[in-house]
Amino acid sequence: MLIAFLDVSPIDYTPATPYERPIGGTQSAAAYLSVELARRGHTVFLINSTTTPGIYSDVTCLNLSEGGPGAFLNGFDVVVVVSGTLGTYMRQIEKVSTRMILWAHMAHDQTAMQGLRDPTERKAWNGFAFVSQWQRDHACRAFGIAPGRTAILRNAVGPRFLEQPIEAPWFQSGAPPRLVYTTTPFRGLAQLLDAFPRVRAAIPDVSLSVFSSMKVYQYADGTDPFAALYARATTMDGVAYHGSVDQPRLATEISGAAALTYPSVFAETSCIVAMEAMAIGAEVLSTDEGALPETLAGFGRMMPLLKNPSAFTESYARLVTD
Questions:
Q1: Are strands 59-63 and 99-103 parallel, antiparallel or unpaired?
Q2: In which order are the strands placed within the sheet that holds 150-152?
Q3: Residue 292, Cβ neighbours under 10 Å: how many?
Q4: Contact 4, 90 (CB under 8 A)
Q5: Per residue in 147-166, pLDDT tens?
Q6: Residue 53: how many CA atoms within 13 Å on its side-chain side?
Q7: Residue 299 pLDDT > 70, yes or no?
């Protein structure tokens, strides 16, 4: 098959990017899947905001300015659009007539998904790929999508996490327990920093390593709105703030961690950081928001997301220390 992945986000990436610098889960998924399909004999193009077009692991990468018009896209057997509700535009303006699939990574209540409220937009797509049952169920109810037009294409971890040897757990090795936080700051870092002094009071030798910033969305230096949160982390006893790193380094850095401590206040559609933690043998301590119960599939420990901030902090600290 001749397959095009189209990502109109402003993020500059190729299939090499997850190995070289921080990048988010959606773009990582597009990078890894495009390479895997090319390995299986398909001809694959990745069309996005790359500033370094070329061929990477047999995937042809083009900038949107080179690969956007309908006349070009109509040469493909299928165009897979990454998280953008562009169906009406592509059919009516760009005159795309080939098969189009919306590969949706976002939840039904996020801005990028609201175009699906328009029946014309829904009809523009040949099908919808979701990343979890939770996400699909909510989207079908919210937008009136027939389940028969959908499929679930679940996320997975990057190759480096599968290749990382699993170390003996801290309670066997005798090492002090080390906690990690590895997702974006707005999803629960402030809540974790609120809870950590209580955790440290209960377990004096515990430490916390934070791998988090908005660099996964390619924010320029000096523009990250969570800089004050990172500064707070660097001044806390027992906390080491590392920022965002590439995936090979992250797999190495979190190896041997006791747990991913993620008091999620964000409705995940499919939590890749939880999968990464489990892949390297760490516990997952989180909330039951969104698709986290589905992602964990009976592993890890979860608690409800409490509306009272003080009660939430106390309850999460107990979850970690129990």
A1: unpaired
A2: 54-56, 59-63, 43-48, 2-6, 78-82, 99-103, 127-130, 150-152
A3: 24
A4: no
A5: 999 999 999 999 999 999 99
A6: 13
A7: yes
206 close to 237: Cβ distance less than 8 angstroms: no
Residue 69 is predicted with a pLDDT of 72
Rounded-to-integer distance, Cα 245 and Cα 23, Å: 8
Per-residue pLDDT tens over the stretch 173-221: 889 999 999 999 999 999 999 999 999 999 999 999 999 999 999 998 8
C-alpha span between 224 and 222 (Å, rounded): 6
Q: How many residues does the chain have?
A: 322
Q: Which long-range contacts (CB under 8 A, 24 or more apart) does 149-152 make?
A: 149/125, 151/127
DSSP states of 167-223 as a string? Answer: PPPHHHH-PPPEEEE-S-GGGTHHHHHHHHHHHHHHSTT-EEEE---GGGGTPPTT-
Give the residues across from 151 on adjacent strands: 129
CB count within 10 Å of CB 108 equals 23
Burial class (CB in 10 A: 0-12, 13-18, 19+), 186: middle
CA-nearest of 21, 70, 23, 24 to 47 is: 70
The answer to whether residues 59 and 34 touch, using CB atoms and an 8 Å cutoff, is yes
- pLDDT band at 44; cut points 50, 70, 90: very high
Residue 4: beta bridge partners?
45, 79
Coil, strand or helix: which one is 269?
coil
Residue 282 and residue 211 in contact, taking contact as beta carbons nearer than 8 Å: no
CA 47/CA 216 separation, integer angstroms: 19
The distance from CA 233 to its chain's CA centroid, rounded to whole angstroms, is: 22
How far is the C-alpha of 218 from the C-alpha of 195, rounded, in Å? Answer: 29
Averaged pLDDT score across all residues of the chain: 96
**In this predicted model, what pLDDT tens digit does every residue of 225-246 receive, in sequence order?**
999 999 999 999 999 999 999 9
